[in-house]
TrEMBL record:
Protein name according to UniProt: Uncharacterized protein
Organism annotation: Pluteus cervinus
Superkingdom, taxonomy of origin: Eukaryota
Length: 160
């Protein structure tokens, strides 16, 4: 019996002391943080800018969709179109009215939400998430400073 215990003790896994540095393979990977900034316009557009990718997702605000009523048609820009801040990039038609959409920030359109052609009502159901309009590769991120913060937008337009 003692022989078995001695054999087990010899083959036991050694635990490194706390003073030893872990090997390169066992180190945890570095995690980089991304900052997503939201900027709002007076015309009720919103851009969610990701500083890691340099891409801004353009949407209309919840306030805008509720003021428009049931959306029946969405006109979007084309991939590759370049816009300056404030340029018209599309339009939204509802049962109540038609409204132009303006670029909240300068850049080049990288992607459009093609689902809106078949389901324009997504703007009503999920205007700031599934109802996004386009993704823009932002050329002038400093323009975010010209936009309203979420708190200032809500204070001005969503007061009851």
């Amino acid at each position: 019996m003692h022989a078995l215990l001695r054999q087990a003790a010899r083959t036991a896994v050694r635990v490194p002391s706390l003073a030893q540095k872990p090997s390169v393979a066992s180190r945890a990977p570095r995690v980089f943080r991304t900052i997503v900034t939201k900027g709002y316009t007076q015309d009720h557009e919103l851009v969610k800018y990701d500083d890691a990718t340099g891409v801004g997702i353009v949407t209309i605000t919840n306030y805008a969709q509720s003021a428009l009523g049931d959306v029946v048609f969405v006109e979007l820009p084309k991939v590759g179109d370049e816009f300056a801040q404030g340029d018209q990039i599309g339009a939204v038609e509802s049962v109540k009215a038609a409204s132009d959409i303006y670029a909240p920030i300068s850049g080049i359109v990288e992607e459009i939400n093609e689902t809106l052609a078949l389901e324009p009502g997504l703007l009503n159901k999920s205007p700031e998430d599934k109802g996004w309009l386009c993704k823009i590769k932002v050329s002038r991120p400093e323009e975010l400073e010209d936009l309203m913060t979420e708190d200032s937008y809500k204070a001005e337009f969503e007061t009851e």
